[in-house]
UniProtKB/TrEMBL annotation:
GO terms for molecular function: 4 iron, 4 sulfur cluster binding; ATP binding; ATP hydrolysis activity; ATP-dependent FeS chaperone activity; metal ion binding. Homodimer. Pfam families: ParA (PF10609). Keywords: ATP-binding, Hydrolase, Iron, Iron-sulfur, Metal-binding, Nucleotide-binding. This is Iron-sulfur cluster carrier protein. Belongs to the Mrp/NBP35 ATP-binding proteins family. Binds and transfers iron-sulfur (Fe-S) clusters to target apoproteins. Can hydrolyze ATP. PANTHER family: IRON-SULFUR PROTEIN NUBPL (PTHR42961:SF2). InterPro entries: Mrp/NBP35_ATP-bd, NUBPL-like, P-loop_NTPase, YlxH/NBP35. ATP binds at residues 81-88. GO terms for biological process: iron-sulfur cluster assembly.
Length: 324
């Protein structure tokens, strides 16, 4: 490994995407560090850690230029080909599990047809306030800040936005005061309509997670969603199989009402990563309806979400590497 590579790894491990413009010249290390929205203590801490660890790794001198440019959060789309396959439930639990793993994560509910995140995040009564023209996200389950299309509509009002109106609403959610949030999980509407196009053309997600049930028809829809992101050059992070296998709460027997393993086989065929499978479990629906995402707990289901979150986090940090 060259000096540049080893310092680059070290710097990235400490400062992540806040570090830029690294130069290593005969032992002299210099870099820019984005300290926007950090407290003075946090700035000093990260700066002295970078300095100390670079010196320990053999740097003769370390020059750190502090900048305070706003770091735009990275968007990760959660999408499905059709409705009702569990996309919103996965989005909530993925965001919560990523937050529990220490990531600075937020959630945007872009589902204009059925915005369900206020309920799933246990914050139905909280409305976002605005600071100037920008919305301030509301804190939901696990302390995850989120914004939802549902918060922009009056209670009980059906949202029938089309084209530019829906696009503007989406921009309000994405370009909000996200503060320290680095990654935003976006719960997309099902299919490939106006919002999806606006999302891809204007907001450019860094990757997409596709969710499907194991059935053939749902998988065909998922394949269409994958093709949509492929055409738009949004990389696919991987495929999640939901409602895979049913554990009978009475007799304890496992059955496969929608078949099993279909999504994993489809992922292999399409050459994309398979991120994991979530069983059909009544507790997921009950906990979700109660606004306490199962990912908050320590059940086997929580661990399944945590494992998906780990792989997504790994992909975000190593965008060119396949999910581990
Ligand atoms: N693994 C699961 N086990 C049991 N119920 C589940 C599971 N995943 C989701 N559900 C339930 O299925 C229903 C649909 O889930 P969800 O709203 O997440 O789907 P969706 O794909 O986002 O749907 P829509 O397109 O309508 O927004 C919800 O009642 C949810 O609680």
């Amino acid at each position: 490994m060259t000096d540049f590579e080893s310092f680059s790894r070290l710097v990235f491990a400490i400062a992540g995407p806040r570090a830029a413009g690294l130069k290593v010249d005969a032992g002299a290390v210099s870099l820019m560090l984005d300290v926007s929205e950090m407290t003075t203590d946090e700035r000093e801490q990260i700066e002295s850690r970078l300095r100390d660890e670079c010196e320990q790794a053999g740097a003769q001198s370390v020059r750190i230029m502090l900048t305070a440019e706003r770091v735009a959060p990275r968007l990760i789309a959660v999408a499905s080909g059709k409705g009702g396959v569990g996309k919103s439930t996965l989005s909530t639990n993925l965001a919560v599990a990523m937050a529990m793993a220490g990531r600075s994560v937020g959630l945007v509910d872009a589902d204009i047809y059925g915005p369900s995140q206020p309920r799933l995040m246990g914050a139905e009564d909280s409305k976002p306030e605005a600071d100037g023209k920008k919305l301030i996200p509301v804190k939901g389950a696990g302390g995850v800040p989120f914004l939802s299309m549902g918060q922009l509509a009056k209670p009980g009002q059906a949202i029938a936005w089309r084209g530019p109106m829906a696009g503007n609403a989406l921009s309000q959610l994405v370009d909000a005061h996200w503060g320290k949030v680095r990654d935003i999980i976006v719960d997309m509407p099902p299919g490939t309509g106006d919002i999806q196009l606006s999302m891809i053309q204007k907001h450019k997600p860094i990757g997409a997670v596709i969710i499907s049930t194991p059935q053939d028809l749902a998988l065909m829809d998922a394949t269409r969603a994958i093709a949509f992101f492929d055409t738009a050059k949004v990389p696919i992070i991987g495929l999640v199989e939901n409602m895979a296998g049913y554990l009978c709460p009475h007799c304890g027997e496992m059955s496969d009402p929608f078949g099993s393993g279909g999504a994993e086989a489809a992922a292999a065929e399409l050459g994309i990563s398979f991120l994991g499978r979530i069983p059909l479990d009544i507790d997921i629906r009950l906990a979700s309806d109660a606004g306490t995402p199962p990912a908050l707990g320590d059940s086997p289901i929580a661990r399944a979400y945590a494992e998906i979150a780990r792989q997504v986090g790994h992909w975000i940090d190593n965008p060119k590497a396949p999910a581990a």
